[in-house]
What we know:
The complex is a heterodimer. Chain A is rod-shaped. Chain A is built from two helices and no strands. The relative contact order of chain A is 0.06. The mean pLDDT of chain A is 84. Chain A has a domain at 18-54. By secondary structure, chain A is mostly helical. Chain B is mainly α. Chain B is 80% helix and 0% strand. Chain B contains eight helices and no strands. The model of chain B has no long low-confidence stretch (mean pLDDT 89).
Amino acid sequence: MNDDAFVLAAYLVTAFAVMALVGFVFLDQRGRRRELAELEAMGIRRRSARRRDGEGTAP
Amino acid sequence: MSDGTLAITRLSGLANPTRFVALAGRMLPWLWGVTLALLAVGLFMALTAPDDYQQGSTVHIMYIHVPSAWLAMLCYTLMTASSIGTLVWRHPLADVAAKAAAPIGAVFTFTALVTGALWGRPTWGTYWVWDARLTSFLILFIMYLGLIALVRAIDDPSKSARVAAVLTVVGFINIPIIKFSVDWWNTLHQSSSVLTMQGSQIAPSLLWPLLVMALAFTMLFFTLHVVAMRTEIWRRRVTALRRQAARQAR
């Protein structure tokens, strides 16, 4: 293996690892965002969000 | 109210999880833009930088190895500061910050170890040697993996936060060992050449690409950390809402 092959291998490994990390972070984000949206669609919302929207307060 | 008190009040207001999520949403497009621009410029500078008179083209590995190693240690230092925030002030965002940083730090530690091995083979004649710098860095990688496993193994988030925070603070002893290992012991790994008392020992034509890549990696870390922190806040909200739904269903 010549020197350039070591340089190429180092850059490829780093690119793969960083892209895998970015992919993991984005997939995790998308999953949690979808779960929150599903819960809100079922009418399950945080108390602070309900108060902000005037739900459950006296007329 | 004095200016100092006002500034602290504003900062603690930003540390509220709801405000953090809103602020992250506004900041992330800009953070991604700056990160990608810096990575493009840094990679161009790194790949067009001259070869070293002794190491030849393998010196180009430095532009990813050194920033990865810096980020691995910076990330652990940030986790330690967050863990102190968890243990002393029980700040709601401190544990979120520490938990979100661990996988990012583990990946940078992994890339530092692998690129270091790939740089070592043509330079030293070996991929690995059990010297103080390499061994303490491997311990850092194992600590990251251990912390990730520990947090996932305990269901109660407040309990896992405290246990992980104690382990993180104790494990911080490894960071100065990594930094000064090349000065304290005879190692195959070279001693510091960028940050020294005599100034940088690297020629400007090699130093500038390194500094730009270090800045690009730092921005990548902070951007991914903000995304991961926001996701962690959402994860906790999902758990809380499911508990709330279960209580209402009873």
